[in-house]
Amino acid sequence: MKVSIIIAVYNEAPTVATLLERVWAQPLPGAGKEIIIIESNSTDGSRELVAEFLARHAAEATPRIQVIHQDRPRGKGHAIRQGFAAATGDILLIQDADLEYDVADYPELLQPIIAGRTAFVLGSRHLGPDGWKIRKFARNGLRAAYMNVGATLFHAFFNLLFASRLTDPTTMYKVFRAHCLDGLTLTRNRFDFDFELVGKLIRSGFVPLEVPVSYKSRGFDAGKKIRIWRDPVTWLVAIVASRFAFVPRVRACAKEKSQRPAHRHGTS
Q: Which of 28, 135, 177, 217 is the S-S candidate for 119 at Cβ 3.0 to 4.6 Å?
């Protein structure tokens, strides 16, 4: 069993070196790992920090590290799709290059998949002790409140259209067997990719299991990249488009398919 950890990097110099070392060191009981980094031509020195990380560990046999260099930033969704196409693991795990999430949650995220209980796990921030109030900005409480309420409304709209009861469909921690992407076409380039990916996986017949994860929000002064006035429009479009797009249904249960060789998938 091998886990492909997909990490999109763009202008994350304050955190990317620490994050990569934590991912490198984090053990995965019952699985090996490969690290796939998509660096989107950062302007703050992140590309050089990724190169230093690769130089430190390239000579070691495991885990395998692959770095994909983009010539310009095209959005997180675009970068993750490139990572999917390059992945060779049985399980795919999406990881941001900041430190909002804790890589120590990997074993809990992976265990239900490795045990054969499910093919698709979401790491929910809302199942933690802070409930739905995940945004806490020290210097801008009004913006945090706006984003918390907005997230609640978007999650409710998503659940309504997909007849689901998810607490956190936009969590970064989306973990699933690679075969879940077979036959799917993914096209969203920015943060609307979150809704597209989860929506199309649900439409394919994969019911996500939510697992509580740790989370510490960062503010816009620390590098958060969501555009709070423009991105919500793309989220609405992605939710509706994913709900009514043609998506092939799976024909076998997750456990049966998990025993088959992995096939590469369309992410154009």
A: 177
pLDDT band at residue 68, thresholds of 50, 70 and 90?
A: very high
Six-digit token string for 23: 């991912």
- As a CATH number, domain 2-258 is 3.90.550.10
Using pLDDT thresholds of 50, 70 and 90, give the confidence band for residue 268: very low
Q: What angle do CA 110, 3, 6 make, to 5 degrees?
A: 105
**Which amino acid, residue 46?**
S
Spatial separation of the C-alpha atoms in residues 79 and 6, rounded to whole Å: 9
List, for residues 75-89, the tens digit of each pLDDT value.
999 999 999 999 999
Cα pseudo-dihedral 145, 146, 147, 150, rounded to 10: 120
Confirm if 42 and 11 have CB atoms less than 8 A apart: yes
Give the count of beta carbons closer than 10 Å to the beta carbon of residue 46: 22
What is the rounded distance in angstroms from the CA atom of residue 248 to the CA atom of residue 201? 10
> How confident is the model over 24-39, as pLDDT tens digits?
999 999 899 999 999 9
CA-CA distance, 151 to 159, in Å (whole number)? Answer: 12
Is residue 133 within 8 A of residue 182, CB to CB? The reply is no
Q: Determine the Cα angle at 209 with ends 207 and 236, to 5°.
A: 65
Q: What is the structure's pLDDT at 140?
A: 55
The answer to whether 110 and 31 are in contact (CB under 8 A) is yes
Judged against a pLDDT cut of 70, whether residue 145 lies above it is answered with no
Burial 3-19 (b: 16+ CB within 10 A, else e): bbbbbbbbbbbbbbbeb
Q: C-alpha angle with apex 164: 162 to 169, nearest 5 degrees?
A: 90
